[in-house]
Amino acid sequence: MMTHPPADPGALSPAEARALFRGGLVRPTSGFSRGFAQANLLAVPEDCAFDFLLFAQRNPKSCPVLGVLESGQLESELLAGGDIRTDVPLYRVYRDGALTEETPDVRPHWREDLVAFLIGCSFTFESALVDNGIAVAHIEQGVNVPMYRTALPAERAGRFSGPLVVSMRPIAADRVADAVRITSRYPAVHGAPVHIGDPAALGIADLMTPDFGTPVDVAPGTIPVFWACGVTPQAAVMESKPPLAIAHAPGHMLVTDARDLEYQVP
Amino acid sequence: MMTHPPADPGALSPAEARALFRGGLVRPTSGFSRGFAQANLLAVPEDCAFDFLLFAQRNPKSCPVLGVLESGQLESELLAGGDIRTDVPLYRVYRDGALTEETPDVRPHWREDLVAFLIGCSFTFESALVDNGIAVAHIEQGVNVPMYRTALPAERAGRFSGPLVVSMRPIAADRVADAVRITSRYPAVHGAPVHIGDPAALGIADLMTPDFGTPVDVAPGTIPVFWACGVTPQAAVMESKPPLAIAHAPGHMLVTDARDLEYQVP
Predict the structure, then answer these.
(1) What CATH number is attached to the domain comprising A167?
(2) How big, in percent rounded to 5, are the helix, strand and coil portions of chain A?
(3) Is residue A76 part of a domain?
(4) How far apart are CA A131 and CA A136, in angstroms?
(5) Fewer beta carbons within 10 angstroms: which end of chain B, N or C?
(6) Coil, strand, or helix at residue A176?
(7) Do B68 and A57 count as a contact with CB atoms less than 8 A apart?
(8) Is residue A54 within 8 angstroms of chain B, CB to CB?
(9) C-alpha to C-alpha distance for A50 and A158, rounded to whole angstroms
């Protein structure tokens, strides 16, 4: 079982990356399989699946659905030859809304009736920002992006409700417009920012104490820019308490076979 | 009860247009409430709703979901103050996949457990084509767009499967690229064409015998351009035979309170 990190994770094919994680490697996936989209995972029992898919439809910026594995389905064209129960480096298991386990192999907890939702991840638009010469602080600092529960509710659907969760990137004031323009072209992976410049209006008291991820400095000359975040589904799970939910651990995403550029619109 | 057509249907607010249809006016909605999006309707029983929403998620070009009314819900922000059972000018009722009634008031057939899906309509991108000086033949001829069942299957989801249905517009050869560029900006209402120039590759033997709508000439110097069509859900209903489904009649759409421009991406 190979569990040591590869020399150049960006050069791995998505199938190679998934095989490493299936083999036991536990590692944040930032930088793996350059050019390929990564996905948030949320699996819920079939009798919650309509409500969750509707929650995603009503919250397209925070929960853009890239693919759905129906109950009993363990792979799809997004993870060809893979297994959704082993191919994410680290999983979180929620029972009645409470985090009960964190594990690299979720097979002991999986159920036949789970429906797995693969949700777009900001890594795709971050690559586009970097390719356009826009500095992204948490990437430069090698840490996870800071994320915040806001005072704004997500749109409710059936049993699912919860706060909108946002990620924050400080952007140089003269590149904020460019950052909007560039991320607008990726509506399938959170798209344009939901808010620019005023944390208080989102109910965020202190940018240095994020609810998830790692704080980053808002350097002089930069403006805090907020995007809808794929952790919103996990916040809804915590609030809505389905009997079982299985998610990725923050930063430990599914590496998919879809190219980032497939999600670009004009 | 006012049932005569208004002098300038384009000037009506969406609420005024819906009130006319609720009052008994039966008329195709092309040209009503200029600048506002119209929607395809498909309502199915709650126990089919997950499968249909998944079908839509897997077929985003033919079935872009603008909104969902949960069981028991008769209005939403897309039809504020309205009633989904009366505000479409003409409905079609399908039982076990067979069209059994066409009626302007579907209340006698409605059930408490129906979930109603509002699906984007090509009128939105047609307005953008016309605004950009691209002639659209069926609009100039005052007829419904020609639509064809293709030999290509839509992506299956649960009990729903069926052919991809496309609409065809002949576009001047020197504007085909513009038509692609313009409609690409509206992914929520069918987006870019799925095919350009070769009906046979879609399994269409004769453009002059469409499966739905009205044939239009492909004039010299124009190229047939094919877009995914919102009739795809009705074709899936015919093939998949849910016990009950309620849809709009072709061309008789729901006039919504959403502006066309809300669906434009950069």
Answers:
(1) 3.30.2040.10
(2) 30, 25, 45
(3) no
(4) 11
(5) N
(6) helix
(7) yes
(8) yes
(9) 8
Same domain, B77 and B141: no
Residues B152 and B228 in one domain: yes
- The enclosing H or E element of B179 equals helix B176-184
Q: Is residue A153 part of a domain?
A: yes
Question: Long-range CB contacts (< 8 A, 24+ apart) of B259-262?
Answer: B259/B35, B259/B36, B259/B37, B260/B35, B260/B36, B260/B37, B260/B124, B260/B127, B260/B128, B261/B35, B262/B37
Minimum CA–CA partner of B191 in chain A: A265
CA distance B44 to B251: 20
Q: Which residues of A touch B265 (CB under 8 A)?
A: 184-185, 187, 191, 265-266
DSSP A10: G
- The beta-strand segments (E) located in chain B are 36-45, 65-69, 91-95, 98-103, 114-120, 147-153, 163-172, 195-196, 222-228, 244-248, 254-259
CB contact under 8 A, A265 and B70: no
Helix, strand or coil, per DSSP, at residue B200: helix
Read off the CATH number of the domain in which B13 is found: 3.40.1640.10
Quick one: tokens of A54? 């509707």
Residue A197 lies in a domain: yes
The verdict on B113 and B138 lying in the same domain is: no
Q: Are residues B31 and B99 in the same domain?
A: yes
Of A53, A158, A184, the CB nearest to B266: A184
Is the domain of B108 the same as that of B205?
no
* Closest B-chain CA to A180: B266
Distance from CA of A72 to the nearest CA of B (A): 12
Closest CA in chain A for residue B263: A187
Residues B74 and B90 occupy one common structural domain: yes
Provide the residue range defining the domain that includes B19: 9-121+241-260
CA torsion angle A122 B186 B94 B169 (round to 10):
-140
A201 belongs to a structural domain? yes
Indicate if B31 and B50 belong to the same structural domain.
yes
Same domain, B18 and B113: yes
Cα nearest neighbour of A56 on chain B: B57
Which pair of tokens denotes residue B88? 């479409």
Distance CA B116, CA B72 (A): 10
- B54 to A58: CB separation less than 8 angstroms, yes or no: no
Query: What does each of the 266 residues of chain B score in pLDDT, given as a tens digit?
Result: 456 778 899 999 999 999 999 999 999 999 899 999 999 999 999 999 999 999 999 999 999 999 999 999 999 999 999 999 999 999 999 999 999 999 999 999 999 999 999 999 999 999 999 999 999 999 999 888 999 999 999 999 999 999 999 999 999 999 999 999 999 999 889 999 999 999 999 999 999 999 999 999 999 999 999 999 999 999 999 999 999 999 999 889 999 999 999 999 88
Residue type, A79: L
Q: How far is B52 from chain A (nearest CA, A)?
A: 10
ipTM metric = 0.85
